[in-house]
Amino acid sequence: MEDSVNWLTAEEQHAWRSFVRLHERLGGRLARLLQTESNLSAADFAVLVNLTDVPEGRRRYQDLALALEWEKSRMSHHIARMAGRGLVVREECLEDGRGAFVAITEAGRAAIEAAAPLHVKAVRSLFLDHVTPAELRTVAEVSERVVEKLEEEA
């Protein structure tokens, strides 16, 4: 069985491990800064960003879970914690009675509006300030292509 594995070349392994290290360190640093400066976890921020990205400020639980790549139980527990802090509310779906929505509250909007400038500043200082415009375009192209493939296979 081991002979059928298409092992990574040294160059592929170096690139992959560099990418993983970047993702882990950048994500960790951004999460700590968010928590320290805005009292939002990275998960809170992700939920609030997804809710503010839609005009009505609400999304079905299942759509939000898919967008965040979260399991149903994680979604349910995290939204309950955020609702307990007044950042979101759960709304019943009146159209079909089966599903529910997660909606951002005024407190949630205030929290994301306060955190967003801090987040942008951190993204600039930790990432954008260290890549050229051409490298940035390449990162975007590669990221979009891989995400598109992942979404096709979902």
TrEMBL record:
Gene3D superfamilies membership: Winged helix-like DNA-binding domain superfamily/Winged helix DNA-binding domain
Pfam families assigned to the protein according to its UniProt record, in alphabetical order: MarR_2
Taxonomic superkingdom: Bacteria
Residue ranges of every copy of the HTH marR-type domain listed in the record: 12-148
PANTHER family linked: MARR FAMILY REGULATORY PROTEIN (PTHR33164:SF99), TRANSCRIPTIONAL REGULATOR, MARR FAMILY (PTHR33164)
Protein name stated in the entry: MarR family winged helix-turn-helix transcriptional regulator
Organism field: Streptomyces cynarae
Origin organism lineage: Bacteria, Bacillati, Actinomycetota, Actinomycetes, Kitasatosporales
